Every structure is written in C-alpha cells, then in structure tokens.
Amino acid sequence: MSSIPYKIYLEENEIPKTWYNIRANMPQQHAPMLNPGTMKPATKEEISAIFCEELARQELDETTENIPIPEPIRDFYKMYRPSPLVRAYCLEQELKTPAKIFYKFEGSNTSGSHKLNSAAAQVYYAKEQGVKGLATETGAGQWGTALSMACAFYQMPLYVFMVKNSAEQKPYRKAVMETFGANVTKSPSDTTEIGRKILLENPGTGGSLGCAISEAIEFAVTHEGYKYTLGSVLDQVLLHQSVIGLEVKKAMEKYSLYPDIIIGCAGGGSNLGGLVSPFVRDKIKKEKNPYIIAVEPASCPTMTRGRYAYDFCDTGRITPLAKMYTLGSGFMPAPNHAGGLRYHGMSPILSKLYHDGFIDEARSAVQTDVFEAAVKFARCEGILPAPESAHAIRAAIDESEKCKQTGEEKIIVFGLSGTGYFDMAAYESYHSGKMTDYVPTDEELQKGFDSLPKVPGNA
Amino acid sequence: MSSIPYKIYLEENEIPKTWYNIRANMPQQHAPMLNPGTMKPATKEEISAIFCEELARQELDETTENIPIPEPIRDFYKMYRPSPLVRAYCLEQELKTPAKIFYKFEGSNTSGSHKLNSAAAQVYYAKEQGVKGLATETGAGQWGTALSMACAFYQMPLYVFMVKNSAEQKPYRKAVMETFGANVTKSPSDTTEIGRKILLENPGTGGSLGCAISEAIEFAVTHEGYKYTLGSVLDQVLLHQSVIGLEVKKAMEKYSLYPDIIIGCAGGGSNLGGLVSPFVRDKIKKEKNPYIIAVEPASCPTMTRGRYAYDFCDTGRITPLAKMYTLGSGFMPAPNHAGGLRYHGMSPILSKLYHDGFIDEARSAVQTDVFEAAVKFARCEGILPAPESAHAIRAAIDESEKCKQTGEEKIIVFGLSGTGYFDMAAYESYHSGKMTDYVPTDEELQKGFDSLPKVPGNA
Q: Which chain B residue lies closest to A430 (C-alpha atoms)?
C-alpha cells in the first residue's frame, strides 16, 4: 500500500456517472407516503403536483440501482467536485490515537455544504421541464444558499422561506442568497395563509423548518408554473447525495482501504444518507460490515428518542404522511445552534435502515461537547466546521479515543458536510461560556408525540 | 492539446519544493530599507530585532534564486495546497468572449485567502527559533485569520491588532481568530504607547493598517521573546507567496498553455507579487512577454496616483523606511470595503518592477464597479469572491470584453485571492444601492504626500 496523501483527490472523469439508489437493494422497502386525505399511498400524479416530473419519478423508483446523472449535472458537479477525502493526520497526532481518521469534505464550494449536490439536480430537472420558478425553505441556510447558487446558474427565479430564528442569528446568510439572486422571506410570514395561521396560534414564534416547509409548499402550489423543492428527507435527495459515498469508496479503493466505522451527522438525513448508502449496500449484500453511526443533537433526538411512526413532514400538516423516526410535527425544537439538524423527522429510507439494523447506532450529543470537538478539529485541521458537521467530529474523536484504549488501528471515516463561516455567533457563545445544553424532558417529548396523526399502526 | 478540465489540480508531490526569489533575477535591486535614525541601510541585526533570524535572512537575500521550502512547511501546505487553477468556462459563456479565462483560487482553506502561504512559513521559523509568541496586525482579517490558524497548528501564542473599523464591520472575523486561539485587540487601542498617542491625536478614529502595524511592532519589541510578523509588503512575504505563481505555471504547462494577460489585485502586494513573480522572471529573461496588470481601489490609488519615494510602512513612523509607491503614511484611506487593499504603500519589489516597466499596467476601479463584477462572477462560477479579489475579476472581465471586440482568443489568468464570506455587509450595501464610490481629490492626496519623510531623493 503506497503512502496515503493528506488529500485523496479523484480526477474529474472519476466523478460518478450514476447515482446509487439504495432502495433497489433494500430487503424491505420503507412504507409508502400516504395521502392524508385518503390514507392511500401518494400517487405519482399527486407528487407531481408539488415536484417536477422527473423528480417525482425518482421519488418513487424502487428498482433502478444506478440512475444515470445527466451530462449537464455532471458539468455542474465539475465546478466543485470531486471533493477531497482528507486524512486527518494532524488530528490523529493531537489525539495520539492509532486510528486512521478520514473525512469527506463537502464544504469547498460557496454554498459551504453538500447541499449543492441535490440543488444542482433539482434545478436542472425543473429547468428541463420548463418550470417558471421554485420555492423552498431553509433552516440553517445551507440548503437555501445551495439552491440559490444553482438557480443563479440556471437563471431560475427562487423564493426562499427562511426560519425566522436562523435569519436573525445569521443575517449574512440572507445576503449570500440575495447575492445569488434569490428572494428571501422570514418564516412564519404573513405572505401565506398557513404562515398567518401559525402566527395567530404562536405569536412571537421563531419558526421552525416544519413551518417554513408548509409556507414554501403553499407558495409553490398557489403560483402558476412554480414547483417546490426540498433539501433533505426525500428519497430523491438521498439519491443525489449518493455521490458523496460513491466518491469516498472510490478514493479509498485507490489505497486499498475500507472503513471500519462510518459516521455522519443526522438531521433530515441528506448528508448521512449520501455518505453511508453505498456502504450500507455492502452490508445488505453481506460483502462488508462497517459499523455505521448517526449522530444527532440531544436537543432534537429524533432517532434516539423518537417514535417510528407515520407523520407529517411539516408543521402545517399539509404534506403527505411519511413513515419515519419522528418527534411529532408539533415538536418545536429548542434553538440549538445546529439549525440544520433541528427537524422533527428523519428520512424514511434511513429510518427504515436504522429500524432494520443496517445503521448500527444512533447517538446524541449536547452542543457544548459538539463545539469542544469543533474547536479541537479546527485548530488541528485548519477547517472551521459547521455545527452540524461537528456532531460527526464529536463521535469520530470519541471512537478514536476508544481505539487509543484498545490499541486498534481502526479506519474511521466521517462526513464533514460543511463549513461554519456563518455560525460564528454560535462559536462566540461557546467561547464566552454562555452556551447551554438543552435536553428535552420526557414530558416535553410526549407533547410532540401527542401531535402524531391518527394512522393505523401509529402507537 | 487535450481538452482543459474545469479545474487543473496538481498532485501533492507537485507542490513547489522551492520558493522563487525574484530579486536574484532583477536587473536592478530596489533601494534598501533605511534606518530612519541613521538614514543608513537597515542591517540584518536591526531587522532581526523585529523578525526572527531566518526571516531576516530571507528579507535581505538578493542572490538565491530558489530557496528550499523546509519539509514541515511543505507538509503544512499539503493541508490545503496545491490550489486549483480553474477555467472560468461559465463566465466565458456569460460574457460571450473568445478569451480563455483562468483563475487561481486561493480561498479553499478556512483562512479564506492566500495569506496562509506566508503565515505557515513565518510561524514555522519562529517556532524553530524558540520564539515565545507573535504579534501582528490585520485589516480585512485575512492575515490575522491565517496567522491564527498557523499559530494554532504550531501552538504559538498570538496577539492580533485588528483595525477598529474592520473589527466593527466584521465582528465574526474576530470570533474566527479566537476560535483558533488568538488574542484580538481593536486598534488603535490604549494598550500601547503609540495607540494612546494616535487616539489622543485622532479621537474617534476607525484606525488603519498603518496604525495597527505600529501597535503590533511596539507589542513585540516590548514583550520578552516575542517577534513581529507582517502579511504583506515585505520581500519575505512575496517570496513565500511565489508558490501561487509557480503552481499556475506548472498547471498551465500540463496543457501547453501560457498566459497572454495576468491580473492581480494590489494592496500591499502579497497576492499580486506571488502570482506574477515567476512570470516577471520570463519577461526579465526575455523568454516570454505576458501583459501584467495590477488593480487597486480608486479610493486608495497607491500605484496609479502615488509617489515613488521613501516612506514609513506604518502610521506611527517607527518602521524602517522603504522605497515604494506610496500615498504617504499620513494618508488615511476611506473605509472602502476592500480592507485588504486599504494601505498607503506597496511592496518595494513590486514598486521597483512597476517603475522599471516589468509590470505593464496599474489601474484602479471604483467599488460599485468591483461589486458588479463580483456578483456576476459569483452567479456564474459559484464562488463568492472577497472584495479584494473582485478587483482582479473586474479587470479580467474588462479585458475579456476587449477580446470580444477584437475577436482575440487571449489567455487571461487572474488571481482569485480569497472568499468573501465575512464581507456580506459590503454585499448588502451594494445590493441595497447604498454603496458609494469615493475617489480622493488631488488636495486630499497632497496631504498624504506632505507626510512623506525628508529623505534625499524624495520629491
């Protein structure tokens, strides 16, 4: 085995030519989305009312293992992919661990995160179909920024509903989106019926991803020629994000490496799913058995303390119902600084894989522990991580410490999904000692569970 | 010639093994720095009082063409280098120009700019010599951030004097430096004698790079075991930054390309000098004759409207005198948003090269024109440029437009020295139409020239 460089770069022609659709290999499919009116599986026609045709098709595709990436999307990817797989030599040294730590860095583009992988695809298909404009929501701002960039590239009008709390914590995120030409509205807003309703019921609310989803969908369906887009949770998003894991696999193969442990932060599942799905494939096929860990904030413990049940994807209860790990669409997450992980639900694919044991472990971390890991990582590796990504760093450091105890030279790979340039208020709060750790009580969680819809099979 | 990819990456082992010292090839040396007390050339001993030994040696080396880069510095470089040379296919398409536009992107590291190239070297040498801590100044914050990162890596205490105006425009820059462990003080401050003096004379001043330099030097010389570092202007900095131009050359050679036009933004000269010096070499040796353009802000027109004269490098008038293009150390630049270009002087090497005709042209741009170019670039290329770097984009677009008129397929290379994540207040000001263009009058410039020291030969 030749010596491993700091960064394993792939060539431009090694960017994957197909996305990997894990559903084609899942022993059991996740339960279908349900139309909450009829309680019957949502049809392609119903889904196409919200999303554009090809994305609706991808959303329902359970059989095509490798879906070709259209050439124009690959050209877009070439602007910032392949992304580097970095050997964390300096962090290893600092930790004095025998473990070999790698991270897949998805933050080397202006959007600052992996979100661009799906944004590029979603806007391309919308443009192809002649869609007149798009609407979406954004929490931490990574998805909104990525979609703004893609919309600027394809000259597609975009309306972004940004969670009010986040917009106020991160005013400059808004300016970035505007630089790329997007129209940004704080959510909940009085520009939609659902927004006005939420404001009436919760005056002074800081909003949530669930609220903003409701508003963006309403905007799309009430504006002629507009479609809605979503940056996480959906099967189509996990499909597009599979380029992350495919590149990791290819880069590691160059040095005859295979991970023992794979770690991703878990919000709606876009980054985690993209990173792990090509490896979960190996577990399903019993070719390899890497240990897969999902890390979520203790303040929004969807997988570790949630229910596996049918639920709405939004607060306004207008989306189809998805079977997933959820805290209930009525759960209002505390203003943890990892806004991108502050979501009541979880990708139906990942939920099913976790339920069936193909994701080995979900764990949660409190935010001061997460920022401690973030600062340690930054000082060693010279990258300022997003608070979301720092959840994965926390677990990677903890696993490396275990290797130090046992002397095992495990190969640990984690997803560094993005950078924290717009999260400095959070870092300031950590440095000043003002950051607090919030963990919801069982009673608080129960209130969220009480909001679960009455669907046969829900506990 | 094989088809040119979006990004030309070099291999890790193609990171330059030596820095290029252009002084070894200059037909005439620039005039030596003078001790303002004796008016005699500053000796190595005098320079070593401020800088560490090896850097003082490099500062005075006029003969060694290729100076080996120590292995540990190359290892540091491997964390973020080689940086990509990007073909701006999308911008070319938008401009409908026959020109081939390339940019060397130095913003793919947390510091967000090229400054890390010299920071890595300066901290390494300080560590080797057993220096106890470092002091420096920062304007826009790019140098302070880069030095903080390098100091975190080498576990070296750091005190940063940050121009007050910039610190207030960009509070989060401070938080980034603190994340990397630096101590940050707004300048002018009451922690130094010179700071107190400046505050007394100019109460309410927003500071300047020249003030902050004075304070940082005072801090270093009054603290046992401390040394001072500077991120631009100095010959040693241009030496370290030569990795930029060397990589550009090597990357272009892979596709048998050579630039017709090379463009860099010009502040103190660190990015411009690093980018162009390997190409100026070819001009000196009459091997090639690329057209080299320096772009500066119209609000701080050092090369286009300054004097070529001996001047202090700082406002407090405590540094040695350097022969350079200058607006006078008493010139207080307007708060243009390109803080990194807001400096009264210019690298003595570049000043001499410009004076002798090896840099073909200096031009200035007003900031609204610069931001117009920045936004156009961002929307096409998906990178959010620093306002400083956007000066080069402006000129690259203008040159491409000329090619469109003449039909010439010129190869244009410009330096994209950094990203603008911390400059969103400036973008907001541009978007809202509130940004104004300030150009100093001749009378205002005259006040700066009146501050020039009385040195034989100064006009």
A: B179
Give the 3-state secondary structure of residue B167.
helix
Q: What is the mean pLDDT of residues A30-39?
A: 94
Give A381's contacts in chain B (Cβ within 8 Å).
Answer: 79
Global pTM reads 0.91
User: Cβ(A150)–Cβ(A181) under 8 Å?
Assistant: no
Best CA proximity match to B316, nearest among B177, B219, B227 = B219
**B residues 168-227 near A, CB within 8 Å?**
171-172, 175-176, 178-181
Q: What is the pLDDT of residues B406-450, one digit of tens each?
A: 999 999 999 999 999 889 989 999 999 999 999 999 999 999 999
A60 in contact with chain B, both atoms CB, cutoff 8 A: no
- Which one of B79, B173, B375, B419 would you mutate to disrupt binding with A, by most A Cβ within 10 Å of its Cβ? B79
Mean pLDDT, range A425-439, rounded to an integer: 93
pLDDT tens-digit series, residues A137-195: 998 899 999 999 999 999 999 999 999 988 888 888 989 999 999 999 999 999 999 99
Task: Supply the pLDDT for residue B1.
Answer: 38
Residue B326 confidence (pLDDT): 97
Instruction: Kindly report the nearest CA distance between residue A127 and chain B, in angstroms.
Output: 16
Mean pLDDT rounded to a whole number for chain B: 94
Determine the 3-state secondary structure of B82 from DSSP: coil
- Compute the distance between CA of residue B282 and CA of residue B260 in angstroms, rounded to an integer: 12
Chosen for mutation from B83, B110, B156 (greatest number of chain A CBs closer than 10 Å) is: B110
Residues A143-177, buried b or exposed e (16+ Cβ, 10 A)? bbbbbbbbbbbbebbbbbbbbbbbbebbebbbbbb
Is the distance from CB of A238 to CB of A349 less than 8 angstroms?
yes
Phi and psi based region of residue A323 (left: phi greater than 0; alpha: psi -120 to 50; beta: remaining) = beta
Here the ipTM equals: 0.85
A314, A35 contact by CB (below 8 A): no
Q: Give the closest of B5, B79, B175 to A424, CB-based.
A: B175
- List, as ranges, residues 110-129 from A with C-beta within 8 Å of B: 110-112, 116
Give yes or no for residue A1 having a pLDDT over 60: no
Nearest to B431 by CA among B395, B393, B378: B378
Which residues in chain B are closer than 8 Å to A181, comparing Cβ atoms? 379
Task: Give the integer Cα–Cα distance in Å for A368 and A353.
Answer: 29
Say if the Cβ atoms of B79 and A109 lie within 8 Å: no
CA angle B177, B182, B184 (to 5 degrees): 80
Minimum distance, in Å, between the CA of residue A318 and any CA atom of chain B: 34
**Residue among B116, B382, B384 whose CB faces A153 most closely:** B382
Q: How far, CA to CA in Å, does A127 sit from each of A117, A226, B179, B315, B395? A: 16, 11, 42, 55, 32
**Helices of type H across B10-83:** 44-48, 53-60, 71-78
Name every chain B residue with its beta carbon within 8 A of the beta carbon of A428.
Answer: 172, 175, 178
Lowest model confidence (mean pLDDT) among A112-121, A334-343, A353-362, B432-441: A334-343
In the block, residue with structure tokens 């080397």: A108
Residues A263 and B459: their CA atoms lie apart, in Å, by 66
Which residues from chain B sit within 8 angstroms of residue A176, using beta carbons?
384, 424, 427
Report how far residue B367's alpha carbon sits from residue B387's, in angstroms, rounded to the nearest whole number: 8
Could you tell me the pLDDT band of residue B11, with boundaries at 50, 70 and 90?
A: confident
